[in-house]
Amino acid sequence: MRQRWWMWLAAFLTTMGMCAVSACSGSGTRPERGPPGPGTSSTVGAPVLVAKIDNSPQARPPVGLGAADVVYVEPVEGGLSRLAAVFSTDKPPVIGPVRSARETDLTLLAQFGDPTLASSGAAPELVASVDRASLQNASAERQPGAYFRDYSRVAPHNMFVYSDQLPVGGGWPQASQLRFGPTPAGGEPTQHQEARYPATTIGFDWSPGQNQWLVSMDGAPYTATDIGRVVAGTVVLQSVQVHDSAVSDIAGSVSPLVETTGSGQALVLRDGLAFPAEWSRPSLQAGTTYTTPAGAAIPFAPGQVWTVLVPAQLW
Questions:
Q1: Long-range contacts of range 185-193, CB-CB < 8 Å, 24 or more positions apart?
Q2: pLDDT of residue 42
Q3: CATH classification of the domain holding 262
Q4: Lowest mean pLDDT segment, chosen from 11-25, 41-55, 56-70, 146-160
Q5: Do 229 and 123 belong together in one domain?
Q6: Does 163 share its domain with 246?
Q7: In this structure, is residue 207 part of a structural domain?
Q8: Greater model confidence, 76 or 6
Q9: Which residues contact 247 (CB under 8 A, 6 or more apart)?
Q10: pLDDT band at 125, cuts 50/70/90?
Q11: Which of 47, 101, 200, 284 is least surrounded by CB atoms within 10 angstroms?
């Protein structure tokens, strides 16, 4: 009898987890992100939640990604990529699949003040650094009750998090607010742009009908369970310096460490136009600004913002 009771409980929990992914992720068209006026943002002071989302082929489609204000694409081991999805305006009930944090996150996310970071954990040698960083470490190791596995997917690409069971993050600081505004002058018409990692290709195709960029992964349409095809109002392809970190994965591959402070080249895509740009982030607490070669600011278009961190050697 005891064995049968445990078998029933395991089956019940599995079913509940699977239902949570399908029923709680939501559906429909994602509302446009946008400020009340040019040069302002509606996220000032709103709590920030960042989720590390698996972007390997086995992890697709993601859940809850359509609600993110910003999506960062980061290079990781083996030429693959992970997503750091920043939620402030909306927080979907279920997000995932979540995977582990990286050293890159510690500097990248400092601009958001004291955000909550949802992840499956971190490499043992990195955990202490995550705990000391300017963020709330809300990993599955720290908040186990907030996480569950969907056994209709293959592990380790099947861990999800209930966002309302995580500690509330600090407010989005004024200093790093997204800047929205009208289309600037000087852009070149473009229909397609892409960034290539050794084992991942991230593509963006302009849709005049939707007035958005359609996101693709490895040549296929990228979809999320909450919105269907993932779209972006603005895309930033940002050239960054990448070094080996002191952390390796279980297979012994060294984790890349991305420098997100300093300056460099970028390409900003909005309104079917490409703008050659310079990016600048002078400190950990500052947001990244993008300007034309002449020094004029390039504001974002309404909608989700995608920033792809492209290693300089692949630029």
A1: 186/275, 186/292, 186/296, 187/270, 187/271, 187/273, 187/274, 187/275, 188/273, 188/274, 188/275, 189/272, 189/273, 189/274, 190/269, 190/272, 190/273, 190/274, 191/272, 193/235, 193/237, 193/267, 193/269, 193/274
A2: 59
A3: 3.50.90.10
A4: 11-25
A5: no
A6: no
A7: yes
A8: 76
A9: 102, 103, 123, 125, 126, 254, 255
A10: confident
A11: 284
Supply the range of the domain harboring residue 16. Answer: 2-26+40-61+89-173
Distance CA 136, CA 172 (A): 14
**Tokens describing residue 120:** 């499956």
Per-residue CA distances from 173 to 16, 46, 298 (Å):
37, 9, 20
| Contacting residues for 37 by C-beta, under 8 A, at least 6 apart | none
Mean pLDDT, residues 189-218 taken together: 97
216 and 310 co-located in one domain: yes
- Best CA proximity match to 135, nearest among 187, 186, 181, 84: 84
Q: For residue 27, give the amino acid letter.
A: S
Residue 249's pLDDT band (cuts 50, 70, 90): low
Domain endpoint, select from 127, 150, 173: 173
Q: Which two tokens stand for residue 28?
A: 């429909």
Select from 138, 173, 208 the last residue of a domain.
173
Indicate the number of domains in the chain: 2
Q: What is the per-residue pLDDT across 98-121, written as a single tens digit (0 to 9) for each?
A: 999 999 999 999 999 999 999 999
Mean pLDDT along residues 18-44: 45
